Structure formats: structure tokens, C-alpha cells
């Protein structure tokens, strides 16, 4: 199984989601591969935002090897599930989704439907926003892994 986390820049929320999920996947020994991408190309090739790297590190997650890339229509064939961090990400993904997409597109939080709550963009805010992102994503990661476990 392959899952893709998507935000705007692929330097704050989605690499944090990927780092948290891959750590939990390893601990549980689940056969799930992870990746992340941004709807925008501003930061392609860059490591995650230093504030995200530092905050996640404090919770025990290493994001330092991750590099930003832009999401592609082909990702809808490559991945089983694509998880959007906010409603704009979700709409931007719908706009590039091929008609014959095999991936399931969901929101990261809550039940995953298009009305689900958003992971707030911490980029222009203070340190507290980065902590909030980790805490929201830890809970969401546990919930998704619990749901996905029933597939194996
Ligand atoms: P992300 O945060 O989507 O969580 O990676 C952002 C990163 C960069 C920008 C906006 C949001 N930016 O405008 O460059």
C-alpha cells in the first residue's frame, strides 16, 4: 500500500505528516510506503522548513532526509490514498485528478471526507502553530493506521 501526503509547499505540514506516519508504520511493521508532495512548486528540491524539522525532532520524528516535490496527475495512479491537509489542497488535487484515477482522495483529519477539518498552515505564524501541527497529525496518523490495518 502506498500513501501520499499533500499540502501547499511540501515543507511544513505534509513532510511532518510523512515523518510521523513512517515512524508509526515502522513501529507497527505495516506494509505501507509513504511520500509527500506540494500542490505548488515554490520549494521543489528543498528540505522541510527548519521550524518543522526542529519541532518534529522534539517529538522524536526525523524529517531531515525529506525533499520537496510537486504533486503530479500520475500520483493518482501511483498511490492508493492521497491525503490533503486543507480544503484548498483538496480542491487543487481534484483539479488535476485524472478521470481514471485509482487513488482515493481524502482529507487528513477526521473521517477524511471533503468537509473534514483542516491542518492549519503554520508557515506565516509562530512556533505554537508548528506544535499544533505535530499534535493534530499524531492523532490523525494513529486513526488512519488503525483504519488501514484492517486491509492487511
Ligand atoms: P506547507 O506550508 O504547505 O505546510 O508546506 C507552506 C509552505 C510555504 C508556503 C506556504 C505554506 N509559501 O507560501 O511559500
Summarize the structure.
Helix content is 41%, strand content 13%. It is an alpha/beta fold. α2 crosses α5 (127-149).
Percent range of helical residues = 40-55%
Separation of termini? 10 Å
CATH fold topology: Rossmann fold
Strand order of the largest sheet: 2-1-3-4
Please count the helical segments.
5
Oligomer: single chain
Question: What does this entry look like structurally?
Answer:
The protein is of the alpha/beta class and 152 residues long. The chain has one domain: 3-Layer(aba) Sandwich (Rossmann fold). 41% of the residues lie in helices and 13% in strands. It is built from five helices and four strands. A four-stranded parallel β-sheet has the order 2-1-3-4, with helices on both faces. α1 packs across α5. The longest helix is centred in the last third of the chain and has 23 residues. The chain is globular and about 40 Å long. The chain starts with a strand and ends with a helix. 41% of the residues are buried. The mean pLDDT is 98. The site of 4-nitrophenyl phosphate has 10 residues, from loops.
Give short descriptive properties of this protein.
152 residues; alpha/beta; Rossmann fold; 4-stranded parallel β-sheet; 4 strands; 41% helix; 13% strand; globular; binds 4-nitrophenyl phosphate
How is the secondary structure organized here?
Elements: E1 2-7, H1 13-28, E2 33-38, H2 50-58, H3 75-78, E3 81-84, H4 87-96, E4 104-107, H5 127-149
Parallel strand pairs: 1-2, 1-3, 3-4
The structure holds 4-nitrophenyl phosphate.
Residues 7-13, 42, 121, 123 line the site of 4-nitrophenyl phosphate.
Amino acid at each position: 500500500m502506498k500513501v501520499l501526503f499533500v499540502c501547499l509547499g511540501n515543507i511544513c505540514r505534509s513532510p511532518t505528516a510523512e515523518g510521523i506516519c513512517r515512524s508509526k508504520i515502522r513501529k507497527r511493521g505495516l506494509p505501507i510506503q509513504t511520500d509527500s508532495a506540494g500542490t505548488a512548486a515554490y520549494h521543489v528540491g528543498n528540505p522541510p522548513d527548519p521550524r518543522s524539522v526542529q519541532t518534529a525532532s522534539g517529538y522524536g520524528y526525523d524529517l531531515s532526509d525529506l525533499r520537496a516535490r510537486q504533486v503530479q496527475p500520475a500520483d493518482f495512479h501511483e498511490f492508493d490514498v492521497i491525503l490533503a491537509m486543507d480544503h484548498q489542497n483538496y480542491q487543487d488535487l481534484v483539479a488535476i485528478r485524472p478521470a481514471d484515477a485509482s487513488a482515493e482522495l481524502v482529507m487528513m483529519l477526521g473521517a477524511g471526507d471533503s468537509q473534514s477539518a483542516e491542518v492549519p498552515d503554520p508557515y506565516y505564524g509562530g512556533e505554537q502553530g508548528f506544535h499544533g501541527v505535530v499534535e493534530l497529525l499524531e492523532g490523525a496518523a494513529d486513526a488512519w493506521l488503525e483504519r488501514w490495518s484492517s486491509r492487511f
